[in-house]
Amino acid sequence: MEPDTQIRPRTATPPAPTTLDRREGPFGEVVLRKRGEHFEIIANGCFLMDTSDGRSERLLVDAALGSLPPGRSWPSVLIGGLGVGFSLVRAAGEARWGRIVVVEREQAIVDWHRRGPLGRISGAALADPRTEVLHTDLVSHLRTATERYDALCLDIDNGPDWTVTEDNGSLYSPAGLARCHDRLNPGGVLAVWSAQPSPAFEEALRNAGFSGVRTEEVAVARGVPDVVHLASRSL
Predict the structure, then answer these.
(1) What does pTM read for this prediction?
(2) Proportion of the chain above pLDDT 90, given as a percent
(3) Dihedral of alpha carbons 143, 145, 146, 150, sign
């Protein structure tokens, strides 16, 4: 028998991440890393998101817009969490949106977009005259703000059942959902990103007075799908 001289493909080893910036803030450590061509954000040792696949972040904005009452012109949207910028870029790329407000509590993340490497993703969206970035905590902002929006697109955790910091858990409590309900115009939409479906959160939305509660999924390569939980304030 002749020796097997066929060259077999080798399994590619994921590149090791390179830390670009690491900062201590009021909510703990936040890190920006680069892995190959993609960027990653890590908060308190917990992976938040990267730039490898933005489908679910774009769905967060698209599904909210598609769920608004027909004929609503120039609706306003509050995006909770700047992250890697995919949701903001999606909103700014849609001419139907009116005011676009982004709430981000980590100054480091804002800096990485305004003066750092993430600006290549979000630069044009940040320069859009409709865009305003508020450097504040989303939970506190919803508690103290009086302005109403047509859509709240929230992506500050890995989901209602997996928060980045303990304080964020109050956002998904009955009181937190009541505040979200109050910050919406009649017919407005709440969209919440999650790394996994949460039937308990769907029930909590219904108990908080929201209607049209549903979940849209985005399949991932391995494991459970990413989802966007959607709910509306009645007209």
Answers:
(1) 0.91
(2) 80
(3) negative
Q: Give the chain's radius of gyration (CA, Å).
A: 19
Q: State how far the Cα of 160 lies from the Cα of 201, in Å rounded to an integer.
A: 7
Residue with the two structure tokens 């700014």 = 92
Asked whether the CA dihedral 66, 153, 111, 35 is positive or negative, the reply is negative
pLDDT in the model for residue 13: 64
Q: What average pLDDT score do residues 30-36 get?
A: 96
Query: Which has more confidence, 72 or 4?
Result: 72
**Comparison of pLDDT for 8 and 24, the residue scoring more:** 24
DSSP state letters, the chain: -----PPPPPPPPPPPPEEEEEEEETTEEEEEEEETTEEEEEETTEEEEESS--HHHHHHHHHHHHTSPTT--S--EEEE--TTSHHHHHHHT-TT---EEEEE--HHHHHHHHTSTTHHHHHHHHHSTTEEEEES-HHHHHHH----EEEEEE-SSS-TTS-SSGGGGGGGSHHHHHHHHHTEEEEEEEEEEESS--HHHHHHHHHTT-EEEEEEEE--SSSSPEEEEEEE---
C-beta of residue 158 within 8 angstroms of C-beta of residue 121: no
15-29, 63-77, 81-95, 179-193: the lowest-pLDDT one: 15-29
Neighbours of 88 (CB within 10 A): 28
Closest by CA to 191, choosing from 235, 223, 225, 160, is 160
